[in-house]
Amino acid sequence: MKGLVKGKKKRTFVQTVALSALVLGSFLLYTPPSSSVYAAANDNNVEWNGLFHDQGPVYDSTAEPTSAQSVTLKFRVFKGDITGANIKYYDNADGSFHVLPMSWVSNDSTGTFDYWQGTIPASSSEKYYRFQITDGSATVWYNANGPSTSEPSSGDFYIIPNFKTPDWMKNGVMYQIFPDRFYNGDSSNDVQTNAYTYNGTPTEKKAWGSSVYADPGYTNNLVFFGGDLAGVDQKLSYIKQTLGANIIYLNPIFKSSSNHKYDTQDYMNVDTAFGTNSNLQTLSSDIHGTANGSKGYLVLDGVFNHTGDNHQWFDKYNDFSSLGAFESQSSQWYNFYTFQSWPNTYSTFLGYNSLPKLDYGASGSPVRNQIYNNSNSVAKTYLGAPYNIDGWRLDAAQYVDAGGGNGSDTVNHQIWTEFRSAVKSVNANAEILGEYWGNANPWTGQGNQWDGATNFDGFTQPVSEWITGKDYSNNAASISTSQLDSWLRGTRANYPTNVQQAMSNHLSNHDITRFGERAGGDIWKTYLALIFQMTYVGTPTIYYGDEYGMMGGADPDNRRTFDWSQATTSNSSVALTQKLISIRNQYPALRTGSYMSLQTDDTNQIYSYGRFDTTNRIAVVLNNDTVGHSVTVPVWQLSMQNGSIVTDKLTGTTYTVQNGTVTLTVNGHYGAILAQ
């Protein structure tokens, strides 16, 4: 949401699994003997640095199984290191743990590692699994949080049969647009100064590029610059061709008095300042078309927790001939809201009287029918013809509730379960992206609600603290490289793999300070962040202007107008964004491949990690220091063979693997993408 709410709680990276993750980090600095074959033995000691499993295509036979598909799992250890391995899984069907012995199946191509394998039988029930690895009398446990000496009680890997997240979301790059500030494609629909008043305050029209703050006598939420849907349509070639992004996410576009449109007045009509419903149809068609680049996808912002107080259902200002809930207790919409003392005391979103909360009532209630159940409901109308949008981003989704409550309870989860069924009945491949600032597992961990969430917790915050030394609210907060790695591991473990791959990874958005602002205008920090964003697990989400390092503080300053003089590859950051998206599109391993930490060097601020699948092995190296460093990358962990060639996709420079490593110099606040 929205420009009205600040002060979201900051996550601390310290988790219950931090100790084991940090211990793992120390092992990742290990360099093998020059032969690159580790001489492990059955010596009652499991070598942690050889252990690996995730649910990438090398280690998991079926990433999104149906109830009829078994799942074959591989686990990696040093060659000859262990005497046995088991899969231990919990099955929701019987509420019990089951143990499956694994057997040796093969070595890797370098002869450094053994692979052990086991198969979990097919069924329709949800399961969670971990591994038990033994070398004589020694036992190590392994799950998504990494290795540990004692059996873990959380952080297991998921198997959720019949849970599918959209492939286009996993494989795409999203571009977020705040419509009023992107491009003015039709000046005839511009909101002029004093065009109307809302709650006694008039509108103000300002010139493109000027301050977003209102002049005296006006208010920030009623400052307009003229951006519209026609403008987005006219700039699709920039988004889809110049940059290469293929998913457009629009902040709210429906009728509303404010510039941010999070106070909806009419869900069924595009706001006249942005155009018409016909403009939306055209935009959707052009996004899906290939005239301006590859096929694209459109996600709209669904503000379903509350309406504006001037919505017809509420009608606080007598704008409609019908009687709204604020006007009469006999209103047909009276039960759409919760009044403690009619008419002036009612449940609101976070105390804003202009945002009365919708009361979803029980299953089958009028509000549920209007929002998602009926064939002409809001959600279904835009998913179907003639709009054919591809998904909903759910604003303030944790708060949706019945009876004026604040959500995050059984009713909230019931609503989103019903919402998923309704949405998927229209388009099985539609995306459901929930806004949440913490651990969104309650909505994504059972496969029956959201496909993914806004990844403040698992990307935005840790990346900001590592690179800029600031949290996303621009407060001083710095973490080391090893702390970053621990934080990322812990937050990945919160989600099934297909959810991780559909999480929205943004550097900035409309609710937080701009990344460029937190970086102090240092464009090299933006370069580093973009390299990280385009090679990490999840859907890269570019908030318009972040590709060139747009500055901006807290709301509304984070919603400045787009500077179109920067929108060309003559801008080095835009050119880098284009190259990174092209690289990401070239390698499925960067989208749906495994993720393996390789190095956490706190002294030199070097972080490297591998992305790989059955076709490609890629080592990403990030240098968060202000100066360049020579870095020796342990690519033997990725089974890169000695004598093989890797290419830095950013520079074209080639390197030869020697003694299981690649050595290169990486500039300060920059990186390398070493692919083979």
UniProtKB/TrEMBL annotation:
Enzyme class: hydrolase
SUPFAM superfamilies for the chain: (Trans)glycosidases (SSF51445), E set domains (SSF81296), Glycosyl hydrolase domain (SSF51011)
Keywords, alphabetical: Glycosidase, Hydrolase, Signal
Stretches assigned to the Glycosyl hydrolase family 13 catalytic domain: 176-584
EC id: 3.2.1.20
A single GO molecular function term of this UniProt record: alpha-1,4-glucosidase activity
SMART domains per UniProt: Aamy (SM00642)
InterPro entries (UniProt xref): GH, GH13_cat_dom, Glyco_hydro_13_lg-like_dom, Glyco_hydro_b, Ig-like_fold, Ig_E-set
UniProt signal peptide: 1-39
Alphabetical list of CDD domains matching this protein: AmyAc_CMD (cd11338), E_set_CDase_PDE_N (cd02857)
PANTHER family: ALPHA-AMYLASE FAMILY MEMBER, MALTODEXTRIN GLUCOSIDASE
Protein name: Alpha-glucosidase
Organism expressing this protein natively: Neobacillus ginsengisoli
